[in-house]
Design brief:
This protein has 341 residues and is an alpha/beta fold. It has a domain of 168 residues: Alpha-Beta Barrel (TIM Barrel), CATH 3.20.20.70. 30% of the residues lie in helices and 15% in strands. The chain contains 13 helices and 10 strands. The chain has a 10-stranded mixed β-sheet with strand order 1-2-3-4-5-6-7-8-9-10. The radius of gyration is 19 Å and the shape is globular. The structure holds pyridoxal-5'-phosphate and iron/sulfur cluster.
Length: 341
């Protein structure tokens, strides 16, 4: 009944994504020029000096191509534009609000919750999302090379309670296929690992990343695979993204989406409803809607809890239950994400 796995990818060019990844927009002026944005007309045009120095601009061209020219309020632009609001200091923001360093068991491995561990599988991302809670994370110190992974692989092997291994980052899909195949195989051969989960924004920002080779890697796993995409707005999903998502689904992965509730990007009911609907049309079910963590540099994205709860009530009244994401927040020290509502 299903169409063959790869027929949904129109032209498969295995090296294309790496070309795109090595030619990101990194100069704010170039992004402004591409989008024909007038810098005199908008207060957002002022750049964050500190924010940019600490977390440079990175925008893949296929993602920028989905932005609307001339529109400062574009929801995709807002996610990547380093506005001077990032440099506003506040006592309620911190560099490591999730206290992740406490949960670092072995190099590259975080364990916060029962039964599952998270590996920071790659040190970099294809895009720099300005709201990122890991924007201050020391990847250099936390992303081992092949040899250094042995300690973490041993930790998983010696703990039969660990049934799920999560590849995160950075973005694990920003790594090359041979490294990824190697890491997946290392994890897949541990008998008590039942599920391998991948968290990635790559299929959204550079859909060309979803190659035939990647799909075969996923379909050949012994473990069940879960692929969690990170998409915050329906406008991020064009035909190519849709084809990439369907290809992952056809490769046999359970496909879910995690979004972040962001002021000025998706903090209205209509936007969240459209996102769920568009995801479903791409074979993806909504999983979590995160309240942003209180990280230095991201204060201007924060939506307060009562506002978020009102939005969710409205979303629930418009959609079937399976299209309503769970509104969650991360509280350090809890044994799971905190469900709101
Ligand atoms: C969020 C997170 C997970 C996954 O939690 P789920 O509720 O299973 O999605 C696992 N490990 C770490 C360290 C996390 O931050
Ligand atoms: S892709 Fe994810 S980890 Fe990378 S910058 Fe964006 S939010 Fe952060």
């Amino acid at each position: 009944m299903q169409t063959p796995a790869l027929s949904v990818i129109k032209s498969d060019q295995p090296e294309k994504w790496q070309e795109i990844l090595s030619d990101l927009i990194t100069d704010p002026k170039e992004l402004l020029a591409n989008l024909k944005l007038d810098t005199t007309a908008n207060p957002l045009a002022a750049l964050a000096a500190k924010g940019l120095a600490q977390f440079p601009l990175k925008v893949p061209r296929p993602f920028a191509a989905r932005m609307e020219p001339g529109n400062w309020a574009d929801p995709l632009l807002r996610q990547v534009w380093p506005s001077s609001l990032e440099d506003v200091e506040s006592d309620s923001l911190s560099l490591d609000p999730l206290q992740e360093t406490h949960f670092n068991k072995t190099p590259g491995l975080l364990q916060k919750y029962h039964g599952r561990v998270l590996l920071t599988a790659a040190p970099h991302c294809a895009v720099h999302c300005r709201y990122c809670f890991r924007r201050h994370f020391d990847y250099a110190a936390n992303t081992p090379g092949r040899r250094e992974w042995s300690e973490s692989i041993a930790y998983i092997s010696e703990n039969p309670d660990i049934s799920e291994v999560i590849l995160s980052g950075g973005d694990p899909m920003a790594a090359g296929d041979s490294y990824l195949a190697w890491l997946l195989a290392e994890v897949d051969r541990i008998p008590h690992v039942e599920t391998i989960r991948i968290h990635s924004r790559l299929p959204i920002v550079i859909p060309q990343r979803v190659t035939t080779q990647l799909c075969s890697m996923l379909s050949e796993l012994r473990s069940k695979s879960v692929f969690i995409t990170h998409c915050n707005h329906a406008q991020e999903i064009d035909e190519e993204v849709q084809a990439a998502l369907k290809a992952i689904r056809h490769a046999g992965s359970t496909l879910l989406n995690q979004a972040v509730l962001l002021k000025g990007v998706n903090d209205y009911a209509d936007s969240l409803i459209k996102l769920s609907t568009m995801l479903f049309q791409s074979d993806v079910l909504p999983y979590y809607l995160h309240l942003p963590d209180r990280v230095t540099g991201t204060g201007h994205f924060i939506v307060n809890e009562s506002e978020a709860l009102k939005l969710m009530a409205s979303v629930r009244s418009h959609l079937p239950g399976y299209l309503v994401p769970q509104l969650v927040r991360e509280d350090p020290g809890n044994n799971s994400k905190t469900r709101l509502a």
